[in-house]
UniProtKB/TrEMBL annotation:
SUPFAM superfamilies: Carbon-nitrogen hydrolase. GO terms for cellular component: mitochondrion. This is omega-amidase. Its EC number is 3.5.1.3. Keywords: Hydrolase. Gene3D superfamilies: Carbon-nitrogen hydrolase (3.60.110.10).
């Protein structure tokens, strides 16, 4: 059975709770990923524990952390969610470390379909959320990069948010970052943080990675975390790296370079309320006008 768990964690099932937290410590693990799946998973687990030792409460992994990133690999590395070996390892690591794990992405097999899927585990190892990449990475930049995820992957069709310590968090995967509408829907569902496991490349990374993170943070006045695999210059797809954390003022508050490393930082959630109060675009939108024009 590999039904999407999204329904089970859909925001409408959350009871309203009055929990006031100022923030928490987040760790973004820029993992070195190679062809050995068991080794990739073991090193993710070991980094989760190290992040916990540094005080992290929420730990995030990169896109495609158990497999090289490439359409020719997805079928071979795919597993069912949540019964596959990678999910079981993440669930166990989250429970043993007692942290929330945003489990990067893995190629997910569901019947005859494959998805690029992020799973989220709470500190007791329970599956909190499952997001399937909604916008597939199909681009063609002549002489630079051509990629067509849709040759092998199916697209997700759900917005995914979950609650951690009273904070609503949204998940997007890599190319999803380019779509402001999706970030807007997650913000409308109450998110204060959006986490994007992603693997931009040597063409689009330097141009758009930080720009898009800051754009989404600025549009929606929330925290944005991007988690990339480390760069392997010998891989078929060379990731940009540069995992990054952007605050609700759109400041790049911390980032890594291209090497394997972990970014650990405190998230001050009071900044979300601060910027939203001081620049109140959320209540100034002229949807009355936009809607009229849109209908013409
Ligand atoms: N790999 C992706 O999904 C997205 C990407 O690299 C880009 O948008 O650029």
């Amino acid at each position: 059975m590999c039904e999407s768990a999204t329904d089970a964690v859909h925001p409408r099932f959350f009871k309203k709770r009055e929990i006031h937290v100022k923030g928490f410590k987040i760790a973004l693990i820029q993992l070195a990923v190679g062809p050995d799946k068991a080794k990739n998973v073991a090193s993710a687990v070991s980094e989760i524990h190290k992040a916990k030792d540094k005080g992290a409460q929420l730990v995030a992994l990169p896109e495609c952390f158990n497999s090289p990133y490439g359409t020719k690999y997805f079928d071979e590395y795919a597993e069912e969610v949540p019964s596959g070996a990678t999910c079981r390892a993440l669930s166990k690591a989250a429970a043993e470390a007692g942290v929330c794990v945003v489990g990067g992405t893995v190629p997910e097999r569901c019947g005859d379909k494959l998805y690029n899927t992020c799973t989220v585990w709470d500190g007791s190892g329970k599956l909190l959320a499952q997001h399937r990449k909604m916008h597939l990475f199909d681009i063609d930049i002549p002489n630079k990069i051509t990629f067509k995820e849709s040759e092998v992957l199916s697209a997700g069709d759900q917005i995914t948010t979950f609650e951690y310590q009273g904070v609503k968090i949204g998940i997007g995967i890599c190319y999803d970052l380019r779509f402001p509408e999706m970030a807007h829907l997650m913000a409308k569902q109450g998110c204060s943080l959006l986490v994007y496991p992603g693997a931009f490349n040597m063409t689009t990374g330097p141009k758009h990675w930080e720009l898009l993170a800051r754009a989404r943070a600025n549009d929606e006045q929330l925290w944005v975390a991007l988690v990339s695999p480390a760069r392997d210059p010998d891989a078929g797809y060379v990731a940009w790296g540069h995992s990054a954390l952007v605050d609700p003022w759109a400041n790049l508050v911390a980032h890594l370079d291209h090497r394997p490393d972990t970014l650990v930082a405190d998230l001050d959630l009071s900044l979300v309320e601060e910027v939203r109060k001081q620049i109140p675009i959320r209540v100034q939108r002229r949807t009355d006008i936009y809607d009229t024009i849109h209908k013409k």
